[in-house]
Write a structure and sequence with these properties.
Blueprint lengths: L1 E2 L1 H9 L4 E5 L3 H5 L7 E2 L6 H8 L6 E5 L4 H12 L5 E4 L14
Parallel strand pairs: 1-5, 2-3, 2-4, 4-5
């Protein structure tokens, strides 16, 4: 499900079962990420699938990438794997107006 930044943030803030998932590369992640995000690189192919399958399917996943394209694909893959609640951040971190963490 695609959500605008406003809806994504509002839903995330009221969700006690939320996990923020960053599907960019490690280098992109190290350039700055949304606080508390877990990084699983979608470009790793089958390794991405293995890592996603290790996650708790009962949680709600707030997924983002650079522009929203890879995270949309990640949400689609997660839905196919049985995740019921995967929310894509439209516009990705490029359009993000909130705080980011710079490691």
């Amino acid at each position: 499900m695609n959500l605008s930044q406003e809806d994504w943030v509002a839903q995330l803030e009221s969700d006690e079962n939320a996990v923020i998932l960053d599907v960019r590369t490690e280098d992109e992640f190290n350039d700055g990420y949304i606080e508390n995000a877990v990084n699983i690189d979608i470009n790793k192919g089958q390794a991405f699938i293995y890592d996603i399958e290790e996650l708790d399917k009962n949680k709600n996943y707030y997924v983002y990438c650079r522009s929203g394209a890879r995270s949309a694909k990640a949400c689609q893959i997660m839905n196919e794997l049985g995740f019921e609640n995967a929310y894509n951040l439209l516009g990705g971190i490029l359009d993000w107006e909130g705080e980011t963490v710079n490691p």
